[in-house]
Design goal:
The protein is globular and about 95 Å long. The protein contains 23 helices and 31 strands. By secondary structure, it is of the alpha/beta class. The chain is 31% helix and 21% strand. Strand 13, helix 13 and strand 14 form a beta-alpha-beta unit.
Amino acid sequence: MHAARVLIDGPSELVFDYAIPDGLPVVPGCRVRVPLRNRSSSGTVLQVVEAQDLGFALRPLDALTDPEPLITEKLLKAGRWIANYYGCSIESVVRALLPEAVRTEENSAKTRKTVVLENTPDEETLAKLEKRAPKQHTILSLLTHSPDKQLPLTELGASAAASVKSLASKGLVKLIDEEVRRDPEADGLDEILPDSPLTLNDEQHHALEAILKSIAGSKTENEIAPPSTQPQPHNPSLGELGDLAVPPSPAQPTSQEISVHPRSSAVENKPILLLGVTGSGKTEVYLQAAAATLKLGKTVLVLVPEISLTPQTVRRFRARFAHVQEQVAVLHSNLSQGERFDEWHRIRKGIARIVIGARSAVFAPLPELGLIIVDEEHENTYKQDQIPRYHGRDVAVLRAHLEGATIVLGSATPSLESFQNCLDGKYQLLRLTKRADHHSLPLIRVVDMRNEGKKTKANDTFLSERLRISIERKIANNEQVILFLNRRGFARSLQCPSCGHVCECPHCSVALTYHRTDDRLLCHICGHQAIVPRKCPECRDNGIFLQGFGTQKVEDVLKKVFPTARIARIDADAMRKKNALRDLLNAFQAKKIDILIGTQMIAKGLHFPNVTLVGILNADIGLHVPDFRAGERVFQLLTQVAGRAGRGELEGEVIVQTFTPHSPSIQFARHHDFDGFAEQELEMRKQFHFPPFTRCAVLTSRSTHERLAEFTLETLHRRLKEDLPKSILLGDPLPSPLVRSHGQFRFQLMLRAASARTLATHVQSALKKTTLPEEVTVVFDMDAWSFT
């Protein structure tokens, strides 16, 4: 007799075994109704196992809620790998695979009453109705002239119900419940004009040919080779192909572990890294590769790093595939429950053949997946910061392997992990070294702000003389300007000159930022708000003043310096309303705005041909932080922001303001030299045993009791030192750079090793031996991306 292991829906991670009644076709991934105490509940089948002799009979399943499994076998396989690799429960992964909008029974398809012409009336009938029942005659006329011979009941008028009922009794029409799609991008559909494939240059053509060759040669894992029963001499790391040999799971017997071995190099399609400078036409390559994939009867998944980039990507794909716009679906966390329900089921049923979305879209239930595109693959937003802490790009590589699909990772500044994989021959490297419009990359000038401070004798100067003159010239020529500052708000902090007191968040170890529009002090970590004091809270001095600057202050000052210029701001504060970002970008595209000030929301993926000047107001933000990736992130950000300039007929110019002009990140970005930056940065990483040459994990303890959080991590540290494998580099328990967040004190230690399997197994063993206090939360983050 077989039993089904069922994850019960709800906030708690309850898993129970139930007997499978005879004749009920239950398989992993199915949705079922089960008895739970004195009520009926819904759940997801995780496994079908042999029923054990427990001395009592298992309660049977009530019913299947869907005849087909909602989670495919390959997605479940990927889910088990994620649970093992990232050290989380399979229950938390299943909740990521099957979003709440699909699991919750409150959601269902939206329907509307639709009148359908069933029999076309003859002339005599129409003549009679015109005299005796003019409303019925009007309804029949409208239906007759409708292209698909049907119309929504609401479009026939408020009093049409009775007339429709009468026509239905005569057999002329019928009333049906028509399913209506809740389209998240419906507002902008009327503005989309169809476009045609562009002529590719030689580099684009070569890249496209390589991608198409990979798509045509793609094979599923089962088509390539039967599973090997021999021990594998080498298991690739996640950087290679997702660390596909999974470490043992303490919660599962060995026979239940997933162990996916890489396909032989003779038949395997390697992941492709498309390294193209900004404006080189990577998107056009994506579009033509997607078109070829659809012709083969396969589906396409496109991942973008930010939800804010989804609308413009959707517009590009819907314009190219205008004849099949209904085949483009959108998935991200900002959708309403109804929109997510509709999009997910359209994907599962095969109606939508192209899916565009942010990180969570990597789990889209696409059948016959042929191509995965990860745009801006270097972005840290692909890393999930809550359990399960997966990396969207790496899971996409794994999924492409399991599905036998081609994966293309695109970026002008790829992550060093992906670039090193190319150097090692594990990924295929394709380059686009020239802009698609044949124009040169923008000229980048670096301004030393230390000298500007001496000229003006001000501590918070943010507009150099060179940048001010350049902005004046561009506006006079009717050209547009983008100013980038990765700090929102008006002032960085409020400080007393007498006693040095800084207004800080009571829940986090950060200074409160002043926001003029709300006239409040805000914490950018936990959202705490405070009234702005008129005197110092400590010494009662009246001289308390604002220090530093953010996007709000920049906007305020620029309106005084350039009174005739049309200025707008893009940041999390200004974009609170739905579609505010889309509307503002459309206005900028239409040249209704001269100067656009923004945070990293404008740093990538935007194409404005009339922008000829980009000013980076403070290139040092993010550079001097305790993170080995700090230099890489600054280089990537500067290069991406600079790439917004000169994308049209006019040449572009970039002015970078910095207090550390000799930083390698700034100098290599100045010369658009990714290879030079990668060479020196990889050498440093290798010397100090940092990724991509090792796997890096962080163990964090947090609690409202500072000493308890610290003691717990120290105890874990002692456990980890016991029988520590020689290949693991174990750091010391230290306070986190952000030592207090959301009212909890945080301590962390770093572990590094060449093998993720070794790391995960050793940490899981130590956690199993340690009884954690109820007041302490311990988080294990494999391939950690943030160290604050």
